[in-house]
Design a protein that fits this description.
With 78 residues, this protein is α+β, with helices and mostly antiparallel strands.
Length: 78
Amino acid sequence: MVRIEVDHGLCVGNAMCVATAPGVFAHNENRQSTVVDAAGDPEALVLEAAANCPVSAIRVVEAETGRTLFPPEPGAGS
Ligand code: SF4
């Protein structure tokens, strides 16, 4: 299970994440991405959406451990 945060100070609403993981992300009334269901798509798709966000507004954290899955932590390898 992951925890997903979208920084609305950064999100420019281009909907890349909504296109990549439509079960997880949806636009709110301000055309910014919000998380509607953190488990709505496979984790790999969530990470792909985060990686493809042009302004790096999406942060993905492993809920059990608090470990940051995206963005990659410095020194964490690949
Ligand atoms: S891809 Fe990034 S900028 Fe685009 S809607 Fe999603 S969070 Fe916002």
